[in-house]
Design brief:
heterodimer; A: alpha+beta; D-Maltodextrin-Binding Protein, domain 2; Dipeptide-binding Protein, domain 3; 3 domains; 10-stranded mixed β-sheet; 19 helices; 22% strand; B: mainly alpha; MetI-like fold; 14 helices; 75% helix; globular
Chain lengths: 544, 337
Amino acid sequence: MDPTRETVMIRELARTSSSARRRPRRGLGLVAVAGALATVVGVAPAAARQAQADTLVIDRGMDINSLDPARAYCDTCQIFMTAVYETLVGLAPDNTTLVPRLATSWESNAAQTTFTFHLDPKATFADGKPVTSADVKFSWERLKGLAGSASYMVSTIQAIDASDPHTVVVTLTQPNSAFLAQTNGSYLGIVEQSVAAANGATADPTTDKAEPWFLAHSAGSGPFVLESYEPGNELRFRRNDAYWGTKPAFAEVVIKETPQAVTQRQQLEQGEADIAMQLSADVASGMAGPDVSVQKVPSYNFVYLALSPGAAGGEGLTPQVRQAIRLALDYHGLVDVTVGGAGRPQASPIPNGFAGTDGLAEPTQDVAKAKELLSAAGVTNLTLDATFPSLNVYGVDFSTAMQKVQADLQAVGITLKLNPVEISVWADKIGKDGIPVTMLYFAPDFTDSSQYVQYFGLTTGSQWQSWSKAPANTQEADQLSKAFAEPDPARRAAVYHQLATMMIDDQVIIPVVNPDLFLAARSDIQGMHYSVCCNLDLARLSRG
Amino acid sequence: MIRYLARRVAVMPLLLLGTASMVFVVSRATSGNPLVSIVGARNLNNPVIVAAAKQRWGLDRSLPVQYGRFMINLLRGDLGTSFSTRRPVLRDLWDRLPATLELTIAALVLGSAVGILLGVLAARHRNRALDHGARAVGLLGSSLPAFWLGMLLLYLLYSRLGWVQGPNRLNARVRPPTRLTGFFTVDSLLHGQWSLLWQACMHLVLPATVLAWGVVGIVSRLVRASLLEELSSEYVRVARAMGLRERTVVATHALRNALLPTITIVAFAFAYLITNAVLVEKVFSWPGVGSYAVEAARQLDYPAVAGVTLLGGLAFLLTNLVSDIAYTMADPRIQLS
């Protein structure tokens, strides 16, 4: 220490040493405050307890991109849309049968180009006004006009006739037998035109200003209304006390942002959450007990390997090599490694249970035949880039799955260079040069097999025809047109069966795991059910 | 000093504009397609949907035009609209900043207090068991990754033993207090909502402890070293010779001087805490700026990334300024000019 500072310190010392001794003690005050706080943490009053029982808390990682019905597109959005905005057509618990919702009945012409819906005259919005055909026309035209992510489901609409307030006549640009199933998709929920328009909603993207309003308000006819939304924190619903149907049991529902599966489990076990929806098999194991029930249900979600022969570096992926890759994979091993056996292999890009999948043979591993094919093709020491998005979806960790794929292919002499990246980087790469071998996931938006053919089939301009840069398969396009024009469900299923077989033969999309879904809830929660269109229907839930 | 401060404050907007330009260039130079988070992977080849999204978010414009719009909006105080939350970035930050500040301030106070206490104990009991114990606690805090420690303590203290409250700022079944400051502890106190205040405090305990532990290590080692130096100085010998009690000598005189370098460290510890809050917020589902920053970067949400970076830059500049001012207050010989 320098001498000057020493002198200053000593002077300071002389000045303050006596006053330092006289400082009052404040510890007792703090103890008193702490004591006062402790006394308020008593038993909650009866009214508060009742309010807490009337509130349902769901833990999940929210992936909400918007709450505007014309722009929303995510898993949580499906829950939100189903709770707040009703569709014309509902879905029975069997996940197959379409049932009345806002429409009491419907019919289509033989060509599958005109669909007529008869609205329930009792249906009203949350403010008591009736649901009319004009609201349906406004909602669907806005969905198409704003070209949000779900707009592809109404892209074939040519005109909507709303001249009768209780009848909606939709004319399509081309046959579309999937249209009825699409109207069951939660994104086609109906918005109250007068309220939305008063808050800036139009069908023109250059004039529409309603999204900020929709992030804080709702204008639907569903069993719940939007109470509040804080991105990254919580989505809060309030019961629509004027609901025209059977009123839901819970007065309030909160979806709490809880991205970690482990945290979801902990909060459920502690009673701070009533439902946890995104548990992986390992997190869910050993969880069921007197306070918590766990349902394992088959899902329609799946994770797949994609082979792109047209990608830069994918030239070696000839049909024989792709077939060898398909044969080299240990499908049951993949299910075991990724989801601890809680799932199953899937034969085609159309998932098990959808129209056309009955009788499809489960994929099996045949290493000898795979080697034989590679040998016949003269392929030795093939090395492929395997850039994939670093994701954990439906309990499947992509890195784990790709390591297993890498090991399986190594056994037949194919080397994968694994390269996990953020999905935005992955999207950039696949959109430019393509990626020879990659992994992605898919979940359905509605209950028709056409969505899979349009996305995975090699019809010109489909998502994977573009990404894989594989030659277009005109037969698939023809068969899809045939399916769209076929009004009979059984005959349509037969066409989709052919399409599923063709897509298997394309060897571009190889599903690797169709994971089960774990629905965990407090034991007193009733009505848990996974729905293809809607994920979780909040109105069906109650506390026993 | 006033002139010095005015000069420092005046240069801040220029520094922030420079930061904004850097962010714009770096984020656009990063290989990645932000459309995947806007339209979803399923629609990346849908020309109608992609064109509408590009047009809406201005991504169809050339980079110079995008830059010009970004800077003009910035000068108007508009950070743009987040691709993922669809709300003004300024509003997102306004909503989330109190959560982060409440957590980091709690961690700073806790970490500094415990760090100083351990440092004093270690210095007073040099090379004895208490010294070794205090140093071990500090070392653990500096060495253990915050996210790992967070998960471990959550499992042990919340899930297994039930001694503390778990993730989030409050239990989902209760409504937060009406916003005055955005700090749940302060707002519930101001509204007289005592049970809410208690719950907010209890929810702070675990994340703040995890976050604070790293600071404890830094502060305790520094205080120990400084205090040992002070205790061997002349004025302490004089104080003892004057008959002052040892506690008074240490607490009132030596510690005051020993804390001088700690001020700088505490200022930097604040930056350390903000950085680590990113991980802790993720583990504790804490809706603060940290988790917002992670999602923004992951999704290439350009406006949100720019907003978070500018906020970080501003925080850094202000922290340095406050640190300089605190120095002059603690040591009258230091003059800012």
